[in-house]
Design a protein that fits this description.
This protein is an all-beta fold. 0% of the residues lie in helices and 49% in strands. A hairpin with a 6-residue loop joins strand 4 and strand 5.
């Protein structure tokens, strides 16, 4: 299971930064590919980034590439999303998710954390 604990505030001005954290329960955290997804008002949930089990490989949506960085600490059962140069269009509810598979689309994820709202003002 994932529980999403947010570090930092949920409201930021455009150009600012936020860091999200997601703490998972259980002893098999390192067995999962972890992902971050987001859902803007009135839109479908979409992929933002993912990180491999050992943290060596990452994957990002084109819309966040170069601005967002995903990382993980398997010793703390935690995955992070550092968001820089935030834009108003980044406003969304952000979710962490886990999969024991090898693909990380929305429908591939096995466990979801509680969402956390990020609002970027212009």
């Amino acid at each position: 299971r994932c529980s999403c604990r947010r570090l930092g505030g949920g409201l930021v001005q455009a150009g600012g930064s936020l860091r999200l954290a997601c703490v998972a329960s259980g002893r098999t955290f390192s067995s999962y590919v972890m992902g971050w997804f987001r859902q803007a008002p009135g839109k479908e949930r979409e992929f933002a980034g993912a990180i491999s089990r050992g943290g060596v490989m990452t994957d990002y949506a084109d819309s966040v590439k170069g601005r967002f960085t995903i990382s993980r600490d398997n010793g703390k059962n935690t995955v992070y999303l550092q968001m820089n140069s935030l834009k108003p269009e980044d406003t969304a509810v952000y979710y962490c998710a886990a999969t024991y598979g090898t693909t990380w689309r929305v429908d591939d994820m096995n466990y979801w954390g509680k969402g956390t709202l990020v609002t970027v003002s212009s």
